Amino acid sequence: MQNKNLQLYWRRNLKYLLILLTIWFIVSYGCGIIFAESLNTIKLGGFPLGFWFAQQGSIYVFVILIFIYVRLMNQLDKEFDVDEK
Amino acid sequence: MGVQTWTFIIVGFTFLLYIGVAIWARAGSTKEFYVAGGGVSPLANGMATAADWMSAASYLSMAGLISFMGYGGSQYLMGWTGGYVLLALLLAPYLRKFGKFTVPDFIGERYYSNQARIVALICAIFVSFTYVVGQMKGVGVAFARFLEVPFSTGILIGIGIVFFYAVLGGMKGITYTQVAQYCVLIFAFTVPAVFISLQMVGNPIPQLGMGGTLSDGTYLLDKLNMLSTDLGFAAYTESGMDNRVNIFFITAALMMGTAGLPHVIVRFFTVPKVKDARISAGYALLFIALLYTTAPAVAAFARTNLIQTVSEQPYEAMPPWFTKWEGAELLTFDDKNNDGIIQYVANPVVNELTIDNDIMVLANPEIANLPAWVIALVVAGGLAAALSTAAGLLLVIATSISHDLLKNYLRPNISEKGELMAARIAIAVAVVAAGLAGMNPPGFVAQVVALAFGLAASSFFPAIVLGIFDKRMNKEGAISGMIVGIVFTSIYIWYFKPQLGGPGTVEGHWFGISPEGIGTLGMMINLVVALVVSRMTPAPPQSVQAIVEDIRIPRGAGGATH
After folding, report:
1. Cβ contacts from A onto B, under 8 A
2. Do A69 and B241 touch (CB under 8 A)?
3. Does the complex come out with an ipTM higher than 0.85?
């Protein structure tokens, strides 16, 4: 593959990582720790919201993030023709 | 049939299953022995990774720990799952493309240096060995409690089983037994949780039941908060803001430590393609999340149940499980005011009841009056969790010795057959050594297990990530970063851990960070040192920069090679 194309591929990869890891940070460190106290004033059914993020929600989001990443990268590989044959 | 009979039947059946799988999946080559031939399907690898990852501590102790810590226990839940996001996005696909057998392999080649390889090798053995001793101890405890055999006999049975399938099958045998072990442990963990959730809030899904309402119409968590504060404990869902920095640092150390643990990373060498490495990290986390989202529900149910059963109740009226666990010294009742009634409160002067963390999972089925076979199932699950993690760790130790030390360092001309034999001998020795150490654990081991994460976070994690994402990173930078990171973290841990003989006190903690969380700071120091040193020293050779270019694209990933 040409060098320029490779750089483009890598930059797109880094962009995806940046977006996904920002969400990763917000749900766990943000909602689960830093803002947990203020979120606890909001109720999600029987759960205080901050507590829910810390013990349930962040884990669900983690799983979803990985599956989104897999999808994005598989598409990207095809687009740049670097997927495995 | 009694609990004892059921336990013999179910545990015996699972052991036969593991042995059968091991015979079916014998290893014939070093490639099969180290990475299961690189032909494991992503789904199977996901299950094996989950079993490998979830130890006796996750299975037996974590729910209990959360039960007593409330919100504070969230650091374990987020820390031990969030690391998989880092693993999937930053490490797994690239290491799979790189296509070697071990973590020291990667460090040694990427940093074109045998010194780097040896530093990584020592870190890998140190981290894995402290961890495996704890697992062996867990096996001994589980046997001793449920089969009423002596602790040491329990460990000997455990050694025998692991010896059989690890020596025979290597990674291939271990992977397929771990798939079986995952099924056993998740079934065993979920069944009692579903029963209890149905009993307490009438919802069969514990993750939702935790937010459900009790028969008196109040929300379970509200009720639990009220019960806790009435007895002087902190409200269960309250996030103690005074230690927010510490929770942040511990969560981060556990996440980066997870992503840096050699026995987890090596699992991603076993799948055929880069694409498979990505998706199998997703499956692994999905399978782990099944247990990790159930555990906090179990914790909340058990805590509520426990308080309602014991608090301010006469000792004479306690159910049979109470005296049973008293006998096992997991519960102690000390009637300080001689009124025959149990005062269970936060104030240590008045409190009369001491409860071990492990009891929450072990005694839960009995507290909820579940049938005997469910209790036996919980035992089989605990053993599956301990054995699967022990086997994965032992393989890392054996591979480090036969492959990294012998093949790549001391005797590069060793034949394939010789290396395979060496790997089998190494794993046999490691199993026996870990068993002996587990029988007679050095006092510090229990303390160090939790700290292994900090050490992995401050050494491997930055070295591997920089090796992939920073083409300019050279051996000078990586080696100095790893050494500064792990030395700083070890010293801080030693200094502030009274159990290790350190002189430090809680007041002296930097920014309020406890030893469990210091790996995060160690990681940052590692990162800064590595970046600064690398920019002041020559760039890595062209051939190494080409390797970095190559691992960034998936095409051309063959099987793992020597």
Report:
1. 143
2. no
3. yes
